[in-house]
Amino acid sequence: MFAYTVETNQSVDEAVQALEQSLSNHKFGVLWKLDIPTKLMEKGIQLDQDFRVLEVCNPDVAKKVLTRNQKGGYFLPCKIVVYTSSETFKTEIGLLRPTELMGLIEDENLESIAEEAEKAMIQAIEEAK
Predict the structure, then answer these.
(1) Which of 34, 100, 123, 124 could be joined to 22 by an S-S link, Cβ 3.0–4.6 Å?
(2) 16 membership: H or E segment, kind and range
(3) Where do transmembrane segments lie in this chain (predicted)?
(4) What is each CA distance from 35 to 55, 67, 91, 129, in whole angstroms?
(5) pLDDT digits (tens, 9 = 90+) for 39-69
(6) Residue 66: in which H helix or E strand, if any?
(7) Nearest Cα to 74, choosing from 44, 109, 98, 47?
(8) In the chain, where the domains are located
(9) What is the CATH number of domain 3-128?
(10) For the segment 83-110, what is each residue's pLDDT rounded down to a tens digit?
């Protein structure tokens, strides 16, 4: 499966805040946050769903990836989404799995780095939910 997704009883804002703290505890920083409904509204398009995209990075992991194979940089930084499910109306936190992305490059060195990063991010998501 290309993604890892969990459900939480928190609001989107609460989940983002908890996720930022949990990621920090695992040496990941949030480089950028995109509030999609707000950005679309700037263009005159209304989206009646709360959806955030967080781009996260662990500098040590990024350095390992880029020094082993620069093509790994195509998949940096990692993306985590936090949104209100249109099906359940609950907040979900989802991770695009680094192992799936790095697997496209077919470099065993990158795959092992991706496994470590993915494990840490899943742990951070579990702690945040």
Answers:
(1) 124
(2) helix 12-25
(3) none
(4) 12, 32, 15, 19
(5) 999 999 999 999 999 999 999 999 999 999 9
(6) helix 59-68
(7) 98
(8) 3-128
(9) 3.30.310.70
(10) 999 899 999 999 999 999 999 999 988 9
